[in-house]
Amino acid sequence: MKKIIFFTISICMFILPGCNDFLEEKPTSEITKDQFFQSANDAFSAVNVLYRKGCLSLMSSGSYLGSAYMYTTGFRSGLIDNPNGRGNNPVIAHIQTLSVNPVTDNNYIQGLWSGPYEAIVRNANFALENLPSCPGLTDNERRQLIGEASFFRALNYFYLVQTWGPVPLVLQSYSSLDDIYTQRSSEKLVYEQIIKDIDVALNAGLPDKPMTENNFRVSHGSVLALAADVCLNMAGYPVQDKAKYADAARYAKELINNSNYKLIEHNGDMSNPENWRGSAYNILRTSDNEKEYLYVREYDAVIDNGGEKPTWCLPFEASSWGFKYNVYINAWHPHAILQTAYDPNDDLRYQEKQYFHSSYTTSDGVEHKFEKMSYFWWEEKALLETARSEKDLSIYRLAEMYLVAAEAIAESGGSLDEAAGYLATIKARASINKNFSTIKNDLLNLSREAFANEVLAEKIRETLFEFKIWNDIARTRKYPAIDGNGKFTFIPLIGAVNPWGATYKEDNLYIPYPDQVKQRNPLMAEPPLN
Question: For 283, which of 155, 188, 357, 447 is 20 to 30 Å away at the CA?
């Protein structure tokens, strides 16, 4: 399973110099074509490093602070909290209250900026420049590696444009100091480049199978999932290319209709609570080898473990309950109002020890009760034996593609009957009391707008622990106002007030550019290229 990890670590140690930030790159790469790209092993190593770098490295977690990735993809909604970590890192509170400062918070946001650019410029661009002429590769291997490098460049630019909007578009590795002075490109231009890279990856002949069956390498399904997500975003704000809804639906349906990919099924009748341990959600939580997984961030207990994620399931006082980690912190805590989004009487995901839990019984038989919090990160072995997380992090699942297809079809004026079928499939898996037909019939009674909003609500419920919530808010400009009884009302984002009393303005749609970047690259002050 964990094949890529070894080669990734090797390449980091062997060929990559120490890196500072994007604007502190040395003018000439320490690794030249003549020095490195001499064999197939060199080529694979150059691409393997991308499985760990850039926005993917931001998913690594620390005990108090969680992961940097969750801040920009969750805390900005105001609906996710880190109750204890907030006091140790003021940036968390700044993000929640929409008061991030590019000067005082520079070090934090500089790390978010430099990681993806390092992966793009030092790694993806360098690989794409040299792979075409690298000796020792078969034609298929060359196409595969070019496809993978293109996928990772697209993935990192996707994170950058979602986080900052207009950003410098750098498509070559650095060869002189002048290369670091690059004007920003508009969101439209960045997205168009992302689509170009995706097209290269789609035509690279990558195996058409789940990533888990492809030695955990990027597969054709991984690229289709990214393509569907990117097109859905291009159809929304700020690009608003409505024709991309049809493309998003087409890519998503290509996955849905392919028998190589399959939703996780329950092991038993979920109307019987005795079978709940065998639910699809417990399989999702514990298994790394499922046909539902389209793209995952891979972890390994020995070489590259998943950090402190298991500690996110427990309150601070759990340090005295016999677990192996030193500190426990509720780093990804859905706000109480967000938890009401689940029907407590019908939604299986909300039942005890599915997506959430509220008690733990220690080995001496003492039951400890606490406020309901995430159970999604729970790893028995890591918590009780090793203190080393090894559960992979799902970034794209087939379930999300059902929701992408449903939303894209509804928004593009397509068949609501077809769209309702996709949405009902995901809702029926989560329902204890309702079947697919009942749910679909109810959905067909909704207006097109109400249906699209129900897809957004279901996206929150289904992918709550996969860092999707803020991006959906930003691209739709709809804020989920939940009434405390589980009823969603989507209101305009601009002017909405989050649970921390902060009001969203146009300036809050993106994270500020790091002050260090603006100072060192005067072209950042120029209007974006269009």
Answer: 155
Model pLDDT, residue 332: 87
pLDDT of 5 over the 60 cut: no
Bridge partners (DSSP) of residue 492 are 478
Q: Tokens 């997500």 belong to which residue?
A: 229
Q: What percent of the chain has pLDDT over 90?
A: 80
Identity at 154, one-letter amino acid code:
A
Residue with tokens 């930030």: 21
- Cβ-based neighbours of 403, under 8 Å, separated by 6 or more: 422, 423, 426, 455, 458, 459, 462, 463
Q: Which of 132, 206, 225, 125 is closest to 173 using CA atoms?
A: 125
> Which amino acid is it at 102?
P
- Helix (H) or strand (E) segment spanning residue 394: strand 393-397
Q: List, in order, residues 6 or more apart from 185 with CB less than 8 Å away.
A: 166, 167, 168, 169, 193, 528, 529
Q: Rounded distance, CA 235 to CA 411, Å?
A: 9
| Helix, strand, or coil (residue 478) | strand
Q: Which residues pair with 491 in a beta bridge?
A: 479
Distance CA 163, CA 159 (A): 6
CA gap 338, 57 in Å, rounded: 28
Q: State the first-to-last Cα distance of the chain, in angstroms, to the nearest integer.
A: 44
What residue type is assigned to position 82 of the chain?
Answer: N
CA angle 157, 252, 456 (to 5 degrees): 80
Handedness of CA 240, 242, 245, 251 (dihedral sign): negative
How far from the centroid of its chain's Cα atoms is residue 317's Cα? 30
Rounded to 5 degrees, φ, ψ at 129 are -75, -30
Are the C-beta atoms of 120 and 54 separated by less than 8 Å?
A: yes
